Amino acid sequence: MDERSLGFVNQLIEKTEQGKLQWSTGFEDGQFKTIVPEGDLVFVVQSNPEMRKFMILDNYQDVILEEEISPSVLQNVQIQANQPKLIMLYNNIGQLQNLVRASALKVNEKLEKAEKFLSAI
What one-character DSSP code corresponds to residue 50? Predict the structure, then answer.
């Protein structure tokens, strides 16, 4: 695990909660991305039952940093109990993915629309 990954994920959580980042759907199912305004970097987060992934890509879509953690790896780490940062990274990638999913899919706006529709009929 690259020590910087946890810091990047934590900053992305903070900036997303502050509304400073715009997220959109990514390249694969369940994947979301945000592009740095200059277009030099792309942050990607993905979470599914098989793994949680965080990546930073450059403007050529080359992978600059990638962390992929599966639940089976996480179980082994918990048994060893010597990798708390890896466990934290796994949990925080999931938290970030939940945040960005709501933003990218405009979940709140769609739910408000559903409420208005139902109250109008």
Answer: T
Q: Round to whole Å and give the CA distance between 12 and 99.
A: 10
* Range of the structural domain that residue 60 is part of: 3-120
Q: pLDDT tens digits, residue range 4-51?
A: 999 999 999 999 999 999 999 987 888 999 998 888 999 999 998 889
Q: Looking at the 3D structure of the chain, how many domains does it have?
A: 1
Whole-number Å distance between alpha carbons of 34 and 75: 30
- pLDDT of 74-88, one tens digit each? 777 655 655 788 889
Sheet architecture: strand order including 51-58: 24-25, 31-35, 41-48, 51-58, 63-69
Query: CA 66: distance to chain centroid?
Result: 12
